[in-house]
User: Fold these one by one.
Assistant:
Number 1:
Amino acid sequence: MEWIAWLKSCVVPALHWLEAHPGTASWLEAVGSIAAILFVGLFALLQARRATSHEDLDRIRRAQGLALVLVPVLRGFIPKIEVAIIRESKLEPPDEVLHLLDQLYVLGVAGGFVLQMVATLQAHQRAEEPRNDDDGSARSSYNSMANQRLADALRYCEDAIDALAKLTRVRTV
């Protein structure tokens, strides 16, 4: 109870002084109001930062989960691309990737590589083989373009695997 007496001994003289100087109470009220407004503003800012931090963390974790699904699929797809290059054949993108196309935006650059690979493979599928010509130049040109498209798809696939592997190593606490 001594602390109450000590507090009373400090507050009572301050209140008497404020009553003796009528303009001081108005100034104290104004300063207190400004301090309260600043406090509420800072509190709201800290809450917004915390919410943004949680959203970023959730996005990173969602991306990591997606990356853990895609890395084995893409690693298993590399030999198929290599075989298609050797045999000069057409190749469809993996179904697992096609089912996740609407979620790839979460992956950032890695998702962009996956999309580039899918687009390149789809362009390769739509390319029509030339009709037979006398000197074979059209067929040679087609084969060259097909090889280039498949090589690009292979490069995009490898780049996607590298970017996804980096994403899975990001630490989240």
Number 2:
Amino acid sequence: MKKIIFIFIFVLLIAGTILTIKMTGNTTKNLSDSNKVKIETTAGNFVIELYPNKAPITVANFKKYVSEGFYDNTIFHRIIAGFMVQGGGMDTNGNEKPTHAPIKLESNNGLSNKIGTVAMARTNVANSATAQFFINVVDNNFLDYKVGNDGYAVFGKVTSGMDVVNKMSKVKTDSNDEPISQIKIIKASFV
């Protein structure tokens, strides 16, 4: 009798797991295999489609930070109307978060800094990008790779929620291009 009850409970558990997977669409596939990232902010949400075939190092780097929860509770700390919004490196107190080592610049990948594209921020040193990224709110072709111009590596594009990004780009900022009212990344997650 105990054996029958055990088998019955085991079958119920298996059936429940299968039903849950079918109802939620949740499988054992790792979400970090996804090339779409949802950015939830205090200004609204947007989704970024990543381009691993064009910028494999940059996409892997960005996905690593998303997987680690690095972008959660960071801010968009630099916003220039008619240019771009930048975030992903400062905590809510305005302190730069510790990052992994810089990555190789992949700006010579055929992608252009067009409206809605996402690129890695960096210093004046070509191979200095770590976690910070920016979203172009206008076409910024002068940021593209050219002979004599290292450019900035585009690695994705906002595919939904560009209205949120445009709204963010128009907030009041101080003389350092920091928003007067903080815009926080609540969560970055794979979708």
Number 3:
Amino acid sequence: MGPYAARNVGRESWRHRVRRPRAVVVLASGGLDSCALVAHYASRGREVFPLFVRCGLRWEAAELAALRRWLRALPAGVSGRVRPLTALAMPARDLYGRHWSIGGAGVPGWRAADNAVYLPGRNILLLGKAAVFAAMRGIPRVALAPLAGNTFPDASVDFFRRFARALSSGLDFPIRIETPFLRLEKHVLIARHRDLPLHFTLSCSAPRGGRHCGRCAKCRERALAFRRAGIDDAAMQLPRRSRTRRRRA
């Protein structure tokens, strides 16, 4: 046995242990759905670690500012269980290139199909980063906020189950991926959380001056959901043309 031979000294010091069994890492973007998810867990007594992952997308600066406003505005009964926001980097510019999400032309407009906003492997990137973050802190749960009707391949029940197993195996740590809103439509989510400061959230693919553009597919989705919920959205200042399209929808 030479000086560089492998040594078996029992359980390696790098192996992660569950230290916060009731805590959850919430992938929070500043959008309405993930902000509501932070409140969802905190209101149920969970210790919440909000995590923002920067991928270099065109809306991230506005989203991060919105998320920080949202967290500061949470009521005391909820905010006391929310730990300070962590922002990590997971650059995707080299993957997406001239894609509209990076800064290229072709941001899906008001009349675009819902699947036009698909970003290849988005949840794979986010969950991989979040799982390592969680394991290093002894947190066995990672949560994100896809809604009913999401047909993207990395947002299915089967994907989340299989990916959680792969992450748990690769980290030698039990990771559970939770998606409590997966059967909810957006207008139902809004109605359930109407007492929270939803106007601080931002759901837009091309924000202008930190505000909703009122012209993209994400703005349309938000506007129609608030209308179905019967609630005014103080965050939306729609241009005249978008208001006309909304009435005709």
